[in-house]
Amino acid sequence: MFKSYVDNEQFNLQINRFLNDFYQEDERANQDLQGIIPRLKDAESWYEAWLDYAVMREERQDYDLASVYYQAAEFYVTPSDPNKEKMYHKYRETFYKGFRNFDYESYQIPYEDSYLPAVKLVTPGARKTLLVFAGYDAYMEEILKMMNFLRGIDYHIIVFDGPGQGTALKNGLKFIPNWEKPVAAVIDYFKLDRVSVLGASWGGYFAMRAAAFEKRIDKVIAFNIFYCGLDALKMRMPDDVWNKLSSLLAANDADQINDMFYSMMASNIDLNWKITKGMENTGETTPFGLLKNFEKHTMAGLGPLINQDVLLLAGEEDQYVPIGRLPQIQQELCNAASITTKVFTRETGGEQHCQAGHRHLAFNEMKKFL
Length: 370
Prior knowledge:
There is one protein chain. The protein is an alpha/beta fold. The chain has 3 domains: about 10-100, de novo design (two linked rop proteins) (Up-down Bundle), CATH 1.20.1440; about 105-230 and about 295-370, Alpha/Beta hydrolase fold, catalytic domain (Rossmann fold, 3-Layer(aba) Sandwich); about 230-295, no CATH class. Helix content is about 45%, strand content about 15%. An 8-stranded mixed beta sheet has the order 1-2-4-3-5-6-7-8, sandwiched between helices. Helix 8 (about 180-190) crosses helix 9 (about 205-215). InterPro entries: AB_hydrolase_1, AB_hydrolase_fold.
């Protein structure tokens, strides 16, 4: 169940994302939250509260919870702060100490002058392969944890960090729109003939983009739908502000756009995170540069090129993706072999971004589709 813990909408999403799908009945987590929640006031207190409990749980060898708390602690830390790198390493270290859900194999897939980190979850007797990747800010370890919801399907599962994600980003690979390139690298590396793909959050766009140009893909799962990068900035922004920004963007007025964003970021922790994280992912150094970069991340023109079976998942109250994009996506997928759609509402559960708090509902639809 999605729970509202504090007044900050994004804080609530992240708490549900990190904890509720896995630890709703866990007395350890529920007890910890009673101490953590009252401390969450701003980015600094967020970091300190989660870190304190991460250290405590690691000392008690509760590595699963320690990993979750280190990831939460890292979330709002700026890239220039050395604590961000420390939290990331502690997150991964404790994750693998506590990950016992699958037999797995780790790989470093050559890519450009670096590599894509990947983990293959081995399903005995499986005959097919599912490639899974995240989007804007999740790491492959978080996705690996979610794969427990897919246990028992007739697929080996390969989860990887692509350019702009996790260790691939740490090694210098920046966020790109043409996701068919890393997908092809993974397919080639494992010498696969056919794969299905599952993209989470911004990865919903990546999955569509990959399927448009990589025809070794047979099934596409958008978890959730994600039409374009600018939508994530437009959501929760007043119409008059967005209309002004759109005009300035069309006129390439970098100075005014930068001034507007820096002013808004100073008092908006959510927007500040979106822009700061985006610049880390892409290597852009200004909000204007980031917006021009995001313009390249769009499904516009891709729909007719997608001829695979497609599963579209959408949350009616998604705070990053407008539900109004769904009929547009359905219409543009005019050559898809099939389109399966599931909209989650507050009544059904799963109304939030990527069904946070009710993740199992989304994965039940995926299992039926696959």
